[in-house]
């Protein structure tokens, strides 16, 4: 009996061991492939972050160059034009039109200075985020009807220049949105430093908008500015929470590590 | 050996026959939870096993001396259902065409084996061995698919992967017993019983595993 069963007794365990071996191999191989895929994804993420960082740095560099050109070249040329107009006006009999031209030139120079300042705020580089935001508050035109209240627990504290610049741009974008679309009368901006984090809270009492529907349609183009902010803050490993609904104003809470 | 064949073997037959009820009962409990095609195919596979066991017992009860014809029919239907599961799981046209070809080929082998070669009263060794080989190949093809697609993160959650494992172990374990069954039966009844005992143990494990697969097929 044993003789006839020999093939069964020998081959069956071998086949079973082979089957279990194949299953274990597939388990291990699949796990390894998943780990590899995860590693590649991680590398791609790092590369994307580096690319984004480089793009933003290039953008800032370009802004700095345009700001410098506007201030040093266009500003200087306008000052020269103004001087010539002044001399011409002094020699001319029609002083009134000369004064008008000088007034227009003053406006143009003011605009150029403002644009240059917005492109690259000197106060931010020299005195830090708290003071730069204070300067931004003062620069809001009275005609806009918006009053900005700024609170900061350490106005003179300095943090990494890149973080300061990114946060300044974020506030600039939020304030631009408020001035353009929100029809708000009050904006509250709070800057709270702790040992590890910086918490920035921005709130306006404007119209607000349906943020949930906007975020559900990221390709609509409407949320491009907010997506840009989010991308900037991700580079700082920061958190960006945005709340807005129709007739309920807008609130943004931003937290970035500073230690 | 004598003790095993006289004391344990009869008990093993009863346990193995009843073991198909375990996934069937689990399937009945899960019936309301799912409407997936995969679940229904696996449940049909289990139902077929129950019907096959019942008809085998009924045939013996009615006094027929040979009930191997049930295995002939069951083998063909089981292959069709398991092939459908793999057909449903693959997306590549090449694999799907291969499965259709395997079904056609296997049906031909079944008919030739039953009516020309071994006969309906003999164990369908040739059919079993060829069918098991094709099913093992389909299981390995599924392993290839999941190892390359990487769409499944946790393999133990994938019912088709679990079914492929079950098929691989069950078919690899029983193939030699089926292949040698007719020769063993010609030698002695006890030798044939040893072959059957191997099949019974693996059937029991396979049906218990099917209960888990059904559970996974609902999620």
From TrEMBL, chain A:
General function of this protein: Member of the two-component regulatory system NreB/NreC involved in the control of dissimilatory nitrate/nitrite reduction in response to oxygen. NreB functions as a direct oxygen sensor histidine kinase which is autophosphorylated, in the absence of oxygen, probably at the conserved histidine residue, and transfers its phosphate group probably to a conserved aspartate residue of NreC. NreB/NreC activates the expression of the nitrate (narGHJI) and nitrite (nir) reductase operons, as well as the putative nitrate transporter gene narT.
Enzyme kind, highest EC tier: transferase
Cellular compartment(s): Cytoplasm
Cofactor dependence: [4Fe-4S] cluster
Keyword terms, alphabetized: 4Fe-4S, ATP-binding, Cytoplasm, Iron, Iron-sulfur, Kinase, Membrane, Metal-binding, Nucleotide-binding, Phosphoprotein, Transferase, Transmembrane, Transmembrane helix, Two-component regulatory system
An example Gene Ontology CC term for this record: cytoplasm
Protein name: Oxygen sensor histidine kinase NreB
Lineage: Bacteria, Pseudomonadati, Bacteroidota, Cytophagia, Cytophagales
Organism domain of life: Bacteria
Transmembrane segments: 6-27
InterPro entries: HATPase_C_sf (IPR036890), HATPase_dom (IPR003594), His_kinase_dom (IPR005467), Sensor_HK_TwoCompSys (IPR050482), Sig_transdc_His_kin-like_C (IPR004358), Sig_transdc_His_kin_sub3_dim/P (IPR011712)
GO molecular function: 4 iron, 4 sulfur cluster binding; ATP binding; metal ion binding; phosphorelay sensor kinase activity; protein dimerization activity
EC numbers: 2.7.13.3
Organism: Pontibacter fetidus
Annotated Pfam families: HATPase_c, HisKA_3
Catalytic activity: ATP + protein L-histidine = ADP + protein N-phospho-L-histidine
Domain Histidine kinase per the UniProt entry, residue ranges: 65-259
TrEMBL record, chain B:
Biological classification of the source: Bacteria, Pseudomonadati, Bacteroidota, Cytophagia, Cytophagales
Transmembrane segments: 12-31, 38-62, 68-87, 99-117, 129-147, 159-179, 191-214
Keyword annotations of the record: Membrane, Transmembrane, Transmembrane helix
Protein name as annotated: Uncharacterized protein
Domain of life: Bacteria
